Fold this sequence. Notes:
By secondary structure, this protein is α/β, with parallel strands linked by helices. It has 3 domains: 4-145, Potassium Channel Kv1.1, Chain A (2-Layer Sandwich), CATH 3.30.710; 158-284, no CATH class; 291-398, no CATH class. The chain contains 15 helices and 10 strands. The protein has helices at 78-84, 86-93, 105-108, 112-122, 133-145, 154-169, 173-186, 191-208, 219-229, 235-243, 247-251, 274-297, 326-346, 355-363, 374-398, and strands spanning 4-6, 25-29, 33-37, 40-44, 51-59, 65-69, 72-76, 125-129, 306-307, 322-323. It has an 8-stranded mixed β-sheet. It has a two-stranded parallel ribbon with strand order 9-10. Strand 4 (40-44) and strand 5 (51-59) form a beta hairpin. Helix 6 (154-169) runs antiparallel to helix 7, helix 12 runs antiparallel to helix 13 and helix 12 (274-297) runs parallel beside helix 14 (355-363). The two termini are 41 Å apart. Residues 1-26 are annotated as: Disordered. This is BTB domain-containing protein.
Amino acid sequence: xxxxxxxxxxxxxxxxxxxxxxxxxxxxxxxxxxxxxxxxxxxxxxxxxxxxxxxxxxxxxxxxxxxxxxxxxxxxxxxxxxxxxxxxxxxxxxxxxxxxxxxxxxxxxxxxxxxxxxxxxxxxxxxxxxxxxxxxxxxxxxxxxxxxxxxxxxxxxxxxxxxxxxxxxxxxxxxxxxxxxxxxxxxxxxxxxxxxxxxxxxxxxxxxxxxxxxxxxxxxxxxxxxxxxxxxxxxxxxxxxxxxxxxxxxxxxxxxxxxxxxxxxxxxxxxxxxxxxxxxxxxxxxxxxxxxxxxxxxxxxxxxxxxxxxxxxxxxxxxxxxxxxxxxxxxxxxxxxxxxxxxxxxxxxxxxxxxxxxxxxxxxxxxxxxxxxxxxxxxxxxxxxxxxxxxxxxxxxxxxxxxxxxxxxxxxx
Length: 413
């Protein structure tokens, strides 16, 4: 029997379907083969000869449709799929292929277990999904039980990315919004959200002695997912995270480095498109220039402080907004510039590719708690905070992204 081929409409739902998600779906009546294997009966795909395995949890005896993804079968309910997915609802309203009555139980086997398997499979239409079996399992569990997201680590990303991918493809807008909002916690559109994300990475480093980059998924995978599901709100944070790695770490990572992927991993985890590689190079260069400019202008952070009159070269404690030792503080700032230049530009220590980190560190070089001139220490902190806000807003421009993210919400355009 020829299957009915149903192409996913590109204009359905609240969001346009990305080209990569417009793969066809096929529905037809079951045409499996049933083979005795020892004391049990196995289901075989007649076209490929591969054994098919019913999913352990998502095979309901009263299910009304079988979804096949790779070599896994899911027997679920048409009503459940139609309730959540506009695409499935439209598909099941179409005339289904006529049922073939040529197969009889006696022609296959008369054993009870074979008869039971045959009845379970032959009484349902089959929908062939061109998706990964794991993605389909995570998606169906989220439809039946509701999403249960984790902490945005690598394992959680495997689950959430599959849910986001299929909720986009099959037009389950509420589930897509929840999955995207969860990913935006780790890949935020605000500086406050980014700082919270970095706090999680630092906690992971302290608890495991491993790099914080080992906690989150590869930013390359996030960028490619964003392109696949039309979610540009994830791009600025993902590109910025990626630019903090050296080119050697990106293109030839060692086995113990965060961006290393096993040879068996999908290429979407390790390879950017040529256009995104160009964006990365341009943004990485802009970020490096920004660090140089940041250090060079650090000395000017003191210029807006009021100075006590008459000027004195004797150190005094300052508790207000007045610098009581302008000459000494100017000398301090000059030494801090030299120190930062050596540390980040020459020695290329930690953070030398991370302007947000560098500006935060520079702002703390004259701690108000310990500095004799609290006015200048506070001025440096204020200057650093202001520079970080400016840089965060510039990230979409650095990487030539289509549109800057909207402050405060994971808006998808």
